[in-house]
Amino acid sequence: MADERTFFNEMLDEANKPRQPYARLAKWLEDKPANFLTKKGRDAETIFRRLGITFAVYGAEEATERLIPFDPIPRIISAPEWRRLSAGIDQRVRALNAFLHDIYHRQEILRAGRIPAELVLQNEAFLPEMAGFTPARKVYAHIIGTDLVRVSENEFYVLEDNTRTPSGVSYMMENRETMMRLFPELFQSHRVAAVEQYPENLLQTLESVAPDPSKSSQTIVVLTPGIYNSAYFEHAFLADSMGVELVEGRDLFVDAGHVYMRTTREPKQVDVIYRRIDDAFLDPLTFNPGSMLGVPGLFDAYRAGNVTICNAPGTGIADDKAIYAYVPDIIEFYTGQKPILNNVPTWNCSRPDDLAYVLDNLEDIVVKEVHGSGGYGMLIGPTASKREIAEFRKVLETNPSNYIAQPTLALSACPTHVASGVAPRHVDLRPYVLIGDQVRITPGGLTRVALKKGSLVVNSSQGGGTKDTWVLED
């Protein structure tokens, strides 16, 4: 469990008085009757059910689709806090894109010894097929979700860079719309930065990286694995919000080096594919030959410069957990600047000294799979049983290069509606970044909250919920 005495409370200061960004919210909460939030929570659940906002839980016996729990108390970030965060995010995503271009071309960072070459070249996320190819505007990761955690008044850490197919932005938008329906008077008392422009910004970003951006009309599609994917609601939501087609692999085909979409009339040439399927399944002729999700010949059309794939194949190397420890070096190498936002201190278990330290301190640290996600394949030492630690020790000793470890952070906590009333619960934050003709960062992002007292696991697949995130304007 997290130490409830040491975490940073985002609403209350050490004297138990509301911090300035939360002052009006605290007064608003004081004036509400005991059952007010319970009723509003039920109203929110009804809205989500009507909209079909669900996610799939693989391996769950009781159901395949669930509502993500929604907390009706917003998380608030002041304008000065957001300016620093957005500057750090901007610096980070630019450096990661420069890193991707470099490793698929001259590999200067490897030749300079700033990152061990084998860590990149022997990594399963590195695609040799991308070598020598330059996407439009030299942008590889067009849509990035940067996971942040807060540990003190002025200290945020980057927990993870999601440069492949980051999800959750639809929940950010639906959370905002639901809050505006439920609490219009609360919005009137705050100057909250808007998030509603995200689909428009996404469309502008995708149009800007088309093979021929001068065309008066670009054909853009969202490529989904299908209705059984855990994020299918989001795929459909984004396609509908942008006014573009949602397609599966069978809806596309390649002819004479160009990609076409089947229609009820004649085939239509596709300029940009916002793909939500993994690299291995994009093209059975280049990658996994058994893939039924992709489009035969797609990668050759992409390499010929006749279609843009967002995010580019091979971007996963930039958010690989083994590479994560080197992101500060990446930022310095490509920008000449120190990172504005720090990494969480990280032990790479492929190093003998780091492995020895991790094995000696499993009870106190967090161990993660290099390619893991969603809260799976990890050990949270302080909350694990002796048996779980012993079993994980064997796994770690057998395959140490598959793991990294980090200290157990005292994540900040926000006021959250629970059965007993309002109580602090630990949170993280995923701001969403778009990179094309410019960098566009949506103010706020998706706040995920660990609903169990003391829990540090915020993932929806592990019982976490979400909150609306308010960035206050000056």
UniProtKB/TrEMBL annotation:
Pfam families: CP_ATPgrasp_2
Circularly permuted ATP-grasp type domain: residues covered: 74-450
Full protein name: Circularly permuted ATP-grasp type 2 domain-containing protein
Lineage: Bacteria, Pseudomonadati, Pseudomonadota, Alphaproteobacteria, Hyphomicrobiales
